[in-house]
Specification:
This protein has 259 residues and is of the alpha/beta class. It has one domain: Nucleoside phosphorylase domain (Rossmann fold), CATH 3.40.50.1580. A 5-stranded mixed barrel has the order 4-7-6-5-8. Helix 4 (137-149) links the parallel strand 5 (110-119) and strand 6 (155-162). The protein has helices at residues 6-18, 35-45, 74-83, 137-149, 171-180, 189-198, 222-250, and strands at 28-32, 57-60, 65-69, 91-100, 110-119, 155-162, 184-186, 203-211. It is 37% helix and 21% strand.
């Protein structure tokens, strides 16, 4: 009997986790932590959301773009990037939220990270710690163009990815973040960059600053999160959709490495 491969597992598990067949996914994938992104996408294109009773939800338009809500945290991010080898998408863009760590970074700003610090640990199971967590440059080039077309500014810089969700009270941790001089903090970006590299998938991230966790009044609350959602989420999603659809329409290869 032949040994079970990673690809064999992914082909079985991607439909099991999402409720969608492998050939129902598009060539270009948007990733999100939130179900409302998937619902907004589905409503915009008049398509169904699959997997509402599964760990992950997915919707796909007729132009070859899918969006997946994979949940929160680096283990879930690694899981979906592993499972996507069953589809071998041409590009994956993470639409995440992050905390702004610099005084010049305000709620509603977009960050297009040039790299991520691997503070989450999950990526250590995929690559040695010396391997940097980097996006695919060409994918970010398309995203950058779309932000500019909308008349918006964006920030670049390094983000810090952590497995800790409740750390805002910890002054020692906050002091460490100041020394690292990262522009933002989240729980998935470094994992997506490293697992994308390990799985030979072109990847990127467009992060929306949703809170300012270094100051007391900037810590996220239910009320503040609702304001961010109502004001910025549709724009965040629209930029991601436009970038991926333009890549698909032009048919350009965005994988920056030769494997």
């Amino acid at each position: 009997m032949a040994e079970l491969t990673k690809l064999d597992i992914a082909k079985d598990w991607l439909p099991r986790y999402t409720g969608a067949k492998i050939d129902e996914f598009g060539d270009y994938i948007l990733l999100s932590n939130f179900g409302n992104y998937v619902q907004i996408f589905a409503d915009q294109f008049g398509v169904d959301v699959k997997g509402e009773n599964r760990p992950m939800q997915v919707a796909t338009n007729t132009q070859g773009v899918s969006i997946i809500n994979f949940g929160i945290g680096s283990p879930n991010a690694a899981t979906i990037m592993d499972l996507l080898i069953a589809r071998q998408p041409k590009g994956v863009l993470f639409l995440g939220k992050c905390g702004g760590l610099k005084k010049t970074t305000e709620i509603g700003h977009f960050i297009l990270p040039i790299a991520a610090i691997r503070g989450e640990g999950t990526s250590d199971d995929y690559m040695p710690p010396e391997v940097p967590a980097l996006p695919s440059f060409k994918l970010h080039k398309f995203v950058s163009s779309k932000i500019v077309e909308h008349g918006l500014e964006y920030r670049t810089g390094v983000v810090y990815t952590t497995n800790r969700r409740v750390w805002e009270w910890d002054e020692n941790f906050k002091q460490r973040l100041r020394r690292l001089r990262a522009i933002g903090i989240d729980m998935e970006t470094a994992t997506i960059f490293v697992t994308g590299y390990a799985n030979q998938i072109a990847r990127g991230a467009l992060l929306l600053v949703s809170d300012l966790p270094m100051i007391k009044e900037g810590i996220k609350t239910e009320e503040s999160d609702k304001k961010v959602t109502s004001k910025y989420v549709e724009l965040h999603l629209q930029i991601g959709i436009e970038a991926m659809m333009e890549i698909e329409a032009k048919g350009e290869k965005i994988k920056h490495f030769t494997f």
